[in-house]
Design a protein that fits this description.
Layout (H helix, E strand, L loop, with lengths): L1 H15 L30 E12 L2 E7 L2 E8 L1 E2 L20 E10 L2 E14 L4 E8 L2 H4 L2 E2 L2 E3 L6 E25 L2 E14 L3 E5 L12 E14 L3 E18 L8 E19 L4
Antiparallel strand pairs: 1-5, 1-15, 2-3, 2-15, 3-7, 4-6, 5-6, 6-10, 7-9, 8-9, 10-11, 10-12, 11-13, 13-14, 14-15
Length: 286
């Protein structure tokens, strides 16, 4: 819960900062036929779409496994993301879920304030080469014997393989405040900050004690985040973006076995994400 309150405090602070500020770029009517350039990512009614890729990091996590014959916790489990090697898969529509990607669409509900919906396709992979603290019980004597002095070695993968690689899908809705930093003909720099929340819809690949793995999409929990990004807009429409995020994820219902068995895992952790990519803005001129 400490992770939740820390992340919630940060995101609440971001949300409270959505007070009115003066727009850095105003449309000025000079005559009936002449107007000053309308800055992108600033005016009510404008829209944008974004596609990009991410790298992510995760805090250590306690993972609680519960089933008919076991109830135990693995403490301070370490995990990392799994980026794909640079290849044509990054732009191949048939391999859309292979890289770690981000997609979002935004609409300015008022000047400099946009509502943004998106999907962050991250990947969470438990490090196999680690020994972790163990608490709880296992009925199966073969696997119970792997616990020694309150610890268990996961490196042989016989006891557990655990990952959300298809993926750790964070489907979120947020608000973002935009501010123009620099405006020139055919080039703008725009900064934004905000926060969001959403649901986690992972496809978790979990093999626990050799049970058939679940490997199916499932609503497993929720998340919230604070975010900031810098946008470079060319010719009023094309956009390059770099964004950073920090957030909290809670997964109380991770499916661990096949079919409809009640077995499940639960965990919560904080995460950070750096993503970058390209986008396009609409309705950026009068």
């Amino acid at each position: 819960m400490k992770k939740f309150f820390a992340a919630a405090f940060i995101c609440l602070g971001v949300s409270l900062s959505f007070s009115q500020t003066q727009s850095a770029a105003k449309d000025v009517e000079i005559s009936e036929t002449t107007t000053v350039k309308r800055s992108p990512l600033s005016k009510k009614g404008q829209m944008f779409v974004f596609w990009g890729w991410n790298r992510a990091g995760f805090s250590k996590s306690d993972i609680h496994f519960k089933g008919a014959d076991y109830d135990f916790v693995l403490h301070d489990v370490v995990a990392h993301d799994r980026p794909s090697e640079l290849s044509w898969d990054y732009i191949n529509p048939s391999e859309i879920s292979k890289p770690q990607f981000n997609f979002k669409i935004g609409y300015f509900i008022k000047d400099n304030l946009a509502i943004v919906a998106g999907t962050d396709h991250m990947k969470y992979v438990m490090d196999q080469q680690q020994t972790v603290d163990f608490s709880g019980n296992i009925t199966n004597s073969v696997y119970a014997a792997k616990v020694k002095n309150g610890k268990i070695d996961l490196s042989d993968a016989e006891f557990l393989q655990y990952e959300h690689t298809d993926g750790l899908n964070y489907i979120n809705l947020g608000l973002e405040k935009y501010k123009s930093l620099y405006t020139k003909k055919n080039f703008d720099i725009v900064w934004a900050y905000g926060g969001g929340m959403g649901v986690l819809f992972p496809k978790s690949n979990v093999t626990l004690m050799q049970f058939p793995r679940s490997d199916r999409f499932h609503v497993a929990g929720f998340g919230l985040d604070a975010r900031t990004n810098i946008n470079f807009v060319f010719w009023n429409h094309w956009m390059a973006r770099v964004e950073g995020r920090f957030g909290y994820i809670n997964l109380p219902d991770v499916k661990t076995t096949l079919n409809d068995k009640p077995d499940k895992a639960s965990q919560d952790f904080t995460f950070y994400q750096v993503n970058f990519g390209i986008g396009y803005t609409f309705n950026t001129r009068k």
